[in-house]
Design a protein that fits this description.
With 170 residues, this protein is mainly α. Helix content is 55%, strand content 9%. It has seven helices and four strands, in the order αββαααββααα.
């Protein structure tokens, strides 16, 4: 029971830190940062930044999500450069499935649905923190772990991520 409470406290702290990061990104990328309402103890911002590689990268950095260049590459690959139906309908950047235990999204059929794209990035951070071994220090180690973890069904997934990551101008 004690271990479960620590997980809940960590999850709440992580989400709050990420939301602080969203506030920073929104303040820097949007013309006006205003808190509109509280929804289930999660801040909702009036002006969410337009989706871009840089905005995702900055949010990853603010939320201490490891390997942000790879995360941006994953978002681009998973969404077909931000055009897929899962992204436009569910704000789901990473193809997160609906059957996950810890999430800030809501199930919508097979996939998670998010209020906006920033919540998808935060959810990815939660997934990464819960599943990724702490010993990983380089992008190559992370790519190898994604392959070993069987993150995607595509056998060329990590090669594609590396190609996309190398082409990013961040």
């Amino acid at each position: 029971m004690r271990k479960r409470n620590r997980k809940k406290i960590f999850l709440a702290t992580f989400v709050n830190l990420c939301l602080f990061g969203i506030g920073f990104v929104v303040g820097n990328l949007a013309s006006e940062q205003k808190v509109e309402v509280r929804y289930e103890d999660v801040l909702v911002y009036k002006d969410i930044p337009e989706i871009s590689d840089k905005a995702i990268y900055d949010l990853c950095y603010q939320c201490n999500i490891k390997f942000p260049r790879i995360v941006v590459a994953q978002a681009r690959l998973e969404t077909g450069n931000y055009t897929s139906g899962n992204f436009t309908k569910n704000n789901n950047l990473f193809g997160m499935k609906a059957n996950r235990r810890f999430t800030v999204g809501e199930p919508n059929g097979t996939y998670q649905s998010y209020r906006d794209w920033t919540m998808s990035v935060i959810d990815y951070g939660i997934w990464q923190h819960k599943n990724m071994p702490r010993r990983l220090e380089t992008e190559d180690e992370y790519l190898l772990w994604l392959e070993t973890y069987s993150y995607a069904e595509d056998s060329l997934y990590t090669q594609k991520l590396k190609t996309i990551s190398n082409s990013l101008s961040l």
